[in-house]
Amino acid sequence: MRALGVKTYGGPKNLELLDVEEPTPGHGEVRVRIHAAAVSPTDLMLRNGEHAATVSALDLRPPFIPGMDLAGVVDALGPGLDGRLKVGDPVVGIVLPFPAGAYADKIVLPAESVVAAPAGADFVAASTLLMNAATARIALDHMGLAAGQTLAITGASGALGVYAIQLAKAAGITVIADASTDDGDSLRSFGADHLIPRRGDFVGDVLSIVPDGVDGVLDAAVLNGATFGAIRDHGHLAVVRAWDGAGERGIQVHRVYVGSVLKETALLQELVQQTEEGILTLRVADVFAPEDAWMAHEQLEAGRVRGRFVIDFSS
């Protein structure tokens, strides 16, 4: 079967089409015929070698196949399942790309990581949901903010940022979002209460709205400790990349890792339900054939992507 992967670390054109063995589901697993796989920064890090230490620690050998978000149809069932999933079901799934990710015609993954696709969404759109929405959900859960409290989001225009805005607003939280001028209207439509300039004086701009500091910051732009001045004493900072910094003034730093919820089926199902209810918005930036996937990587590295790039494996 087809897969997209890298035999050696490098730039976008190191991605190549491969012929790999079709996987067989084991106990508690399902096989999904993938129709669409979304592209994420983690995929770029696997391709360019930033995840080399993880790959080495797991004693994995090339080719390395990226991809965490997928949508498709259940293709085969392993033993030991509870009947929740059936062959032919349209589904979405989430997977770590170790040993192999979602850039392939088929993938085997734990049944707990697979849920019914959002009704009314095509496979391309559905593939953009789980990883970023689950990351936003974890971040908000870690911070434990309540209705009426305040949250500032860096990198608010990206896929993670928009899901965080929407989930926070659904919980009654006041949202301050950093945004480029041309993103302001869209972020307001997603629920942002206040906008501050992207790459402006983040701390000063937040304090001009909430003088004592916000209750929490979700740092999708990887500013890390540079956000502390915008957070009240004993507030919260959720970081989404590995960062070993400590809080100050009693600020709690929460390190968000989506791999911790891959098998939390109820959480994944809730995100699907919120999509069906219109709380979460699926956004596709562009669609690429597998042979052109390197262009998706190249454009994602260039930045200013709104929504998710998707690789179409349906043909």
Describe the structure.
This protein has 315 residues and is an alpha/beta fold. It contains 9 helices and 15 strands. β9, α6 and β10 form a beta-alpha-beta unit. The protein is globular and about 60 Å long.
Describe this structure in a few short sentences.
The protein has helices at residues 41-48, 52-57, 123-126, 130-143, 159-170, 184-190, 202-207, 265-276, 293-302, and strands at 2-5, 16-19, 29-38, 69-77, 90-94, 106-110, 114-116, 150-154, 174-179, 194-197, 214-219, 231-239, 252-255, 284-288, 308-312. It has 315 residues and is α/β, with parallel strands linked by helices. The strands form three sheets. Strands 3, 4, 5, 6, 7, 14 and 15 form a seven-stranded mixed beta sheet that branches. Strands 10-9-8-11-12-13 form a six-stranded parallel beta sheet. The chain has a two-stranded antiparallel ribbon with strand order 1-2.
Strand percent estimate:
25-35%
Mean pLDDT: 95
Given as residue ranges, the uncertain stretches (5+ residues, pLDDT < 50) are: none
Q: Into which percent range does the helicity of residues fall? A: 25-40%
- List the secondary-structure elements in sequence, H or E: EEEHHEEEEHHEHEHEHEEEHEHE
Q: Count the DSSP helices.
A: 9
State the distance separating the first and last CA atoms: 12 Å
Rg over alpha carbons: 19 Å
Structural class assignment:
alpha/beta
Q: Give a count of the beta strands, DSSP E runs of length 2 or more.
A: 15
| Main beta sheet strand tally, sense and closure | 7 strands, mixed
The rough form would be described as: globular
